[in-house]
From TrEMBL:
InterPro entries: Class_I_gatase-like, DJ-1, DJ-1/PfpI, Prot/Nucl_acid_deglycase. Keywords: Repeat. The lineage of its organism: Bacteria, Pseudomonadati, Pseudomonadota, Gammaproteobacteria, Chromatiales. Pfam families: DJ-1_PfpI. GO terms for cellular component: cytoplasm. Residues 3-165 form the DJ-1/PfpI domain. PANTHER family: PARKINSON DISEASE PROTEIN 7 HOMOLOG, PROTEIN/NUCLEIC ACID DEGLYCASE DJ-1-RELATED. This is DJ-1 family protein. It comes from Halochromatium glycolicum.
Length: 184
């Protein structure tokens, strides 16, 4: 069973975080949520999430994928956390997946994971002048190598389903998606 880490920062976008957590767990992927600060995480719209662990408890563990929810100031908090940058660098060095949605692709950019890659994000989250080596596109979900990026809350379900497909294959994605009653 694949293992996925989802770091949660104060001010993260709850729609993205919960959608990703929920759909990956429906696919029977082991999901570990880890707060970058102790205790419950207050999200951008006031929802409080209780992480499974503190980031320090799992930061040295191996994961098949690390997924960063966006939202502000959540993405900024993730970007300022050296443990998150270290995790992402280890993921890249081990040729494992890293993914981010909304404003969180800025963390991938500042870690260098988007250098020479095509990516997407919430409009303005990645400063093209600061990161000219990143090819920014306006697509819902973009995969380039072992890096996946997505636009924002409205693309969270497509993003999570794509992550399921990458980790478990198209049949598992289809099985999860069929039960969601999404319009054709």
């Amino acid at each position: 069973m694949p293992r996925v880490l989802i770091p949660l920062a104060p001010g993260c976008e709850e729609l993205e975080a919960v959608t990703i957590i929920d759909l990956l767990r429906r696919a029977e992927i082991e999901v570990i949520t880890a707060g970058i600060e102790p205790g419950p995480v207050q999200c951008s719209r006031g929802t409080r999430l209780v992480p499974d662990a503190d980031l320090d408890e799992v930061a040295e563990d191996e994961f098949d994928m690390v997924v960063l929810p966006g939202g502000q100031p959540g993405a900024t908090h993730l970007d300022r956390d050296t443990r998150v940058h270290d995790l992402l660098a280890r993921q890249a060095a081990a040729d494992r997946w890293s993914a981010a949605i909304c404003a969180a692709p800025q963390v991938l950019a500042s870690t260098g994971l988007l250098d020479g890659r095509t990516a997407t994000s919430f409009p303005g989250a990645i400063d093209g002048a600061r990161y000219p080596q990143v090819q920014l596109v306006e697509q819902p979900v973009v995969t380039d190598g072992k890096v996946v990026t997505s636009r924002g809350p409205g693309t969270a379900m497509d993003f999570a389903l794509h992550l399921i497909e990458l980790l478990m294959g198209p049949e598992r994605r289809g099985a999860v998606e069929a039960k969601l009653m999404r319009p054709a």
